[in-house]
Design goal:
This protein is α+β, with helices and mostly antiparallel strands. It has 3 domains: about 90 residues, Rossmann fold; about 80 residues, no CATH class; about 80 residues, 3-Layer(aba) Sandwich (Glutaredoxin), CATH 3.40.30. The strands form 2 sheets. Strands 6-7-5-8-9 form a 5-stranded mixed beta sheet, covered by helices on one side. Strands 2-1-3-4 form a 4-stranded antiparallel beta sheet, covered by helices on one side. Helix 3 packs across helix 4 and helix 8 crosses helix 9. The structure holds FE2/S2 (inorganic) cluster. The site of FE2/S2 (inorganic) cluster (FES) has 12 residues, from helix 10.
Length: about 325
């Protein structure tokens, strides 16, 4: 007796995926091939940035697959119509990684954010789908979608007052790029240059003036590591936690920094003098353990030397 072939529920073949365009174009997935049959439990591992989330969102029909083949329940999603995507999505439920949810958004806005990635879905449709309304639209949802257009501007002003942010520099940056195609990235980069980070109020201001969703902007801000949503210190202290540094005591160096200046990974001192960051290999393994303060590199560093380096920057103020 021969065993019957089991049809895979998920079949992925030569799947590629990119983000961005032009100089910012970045390949995230390359030639992914896999099959998953009913009852299988799959554990997806890999370093940060290796494309796990991208793959999950493609499998969840939350993004359009770009190249190759991606079949879920026999439906081809690569180049599939929005109807096909919606049909598959309904059978899957929803994929969430809690750390990907944006606190500033409601549940519906979080869901709508992924829908915005699909061209041809209007703001209103995205909100309606996120609210689970497929055919008949309830008045309240419609009204809410219409109101959203005016919320960003008011929110920007309110937050600017609360955060004591002067929106003038942000407005000037936006003015500069207003008529440019693909202006979101240069606007955000310009705003970060002005303020040192992206204040919440400027997100809403940008959304209003560029006529995009705030949630789209949060999507960009959380995807690109170059953007920061909190004020950062004058001195960025990077502690390498790569393998070579780790075995040579990088943990102790991190602890010494925390003891001395009072901040650990991704934290900033209250006086905005230091931000500490634990990072992966910075390419100076021969000098492990290594720290960097802004552009200066300190290799073969001991706990004692770390304290001295920190004191030097405290003195410089
Ligand atoms: S592991 Fe630290 S520099 Fe390479």
């Amino acid at each position: 007796m021969t065993a019957q072939a089991v049809e895979p529920l998920i079949s992925v073949s030569h799947l590629d995926h990119h983000y961005g365009s032009g100089k910012l174009r970045q390949q995230i997935l390359k030639d992914i091939n896999t099959e998953i049959v009913e009852g299988e439990i799959i554990i997806l591992t890999g370093p940060s940035g290796s494309g796990k989330t991208t793959l999950l969102t493609l499998l969840g029909a939350l993004r359009s697959a770009q190249r190759g083949s991606l079949k879920i329940f026999g439906e081809e999603l690569c180049g599939g119509s929005s109807r096909t995507m919606q049909k598959v999505r309904r059978q899957i439920g929803y994929i969430f990684q809690s750390h990907n949810l944006i606190d500033a958004l409601t549940v519906a806005q979080n869901v709508a954010m992924s829908l915005h990635l699909h061209r041809g879905i209007s703001r209103k449709q995205a909100r309606i789908q996120a609210a689970g309304q497929d055919v008949e639209v309830e008045d309240a949802v419609e009204e809410e979608a219409a109101e959203e257009e005016t919320v960003d501007a008011a929110a920007a002003v309110e937050e600017a007052v609360e955060e004591e942010i002067d929106l003038g520099p942000a407005n000037m940056v936006i003015d500069k790029y207003l008529d440019m195609h693909g202006n979101l990235m240069p606007v955000l980069q310009g705003i970060q240059e002005e303020y040192g980070y992206i204040p919440e109020a400027t997100v809403h201001l940008t959304a209003e003036r560029l006529n995009v969703y705030s949630s789209q902007i949060y999507g960009v801000l959380t995807f690109y590591a170059q953007f920061h949503m909190k004020p950062r210190g004058k001195y960025i202290v990077r502690v390498c936690m790569g393998t070579a540094c780790h075995v040579k005591g990088a943990g102790r160096i991190g602890d010494a920094i925390k003891d001395h200046i009072g901040v650990g990974h991704a934290e900033t001192t209250e006086d905005l003098l230091f931000t500490a960051e634990y990072v992966a290999c910075i390419g100076a393994c021969g000098m492990a353990p290594v720290i960097m303060v802004n552009d200066a590199t300190y290799g073969s560093i001991s706990v004692q030397k770390t304290v001295e380096v920190m004191d030097k920057y405290i003195e410089m103020g």
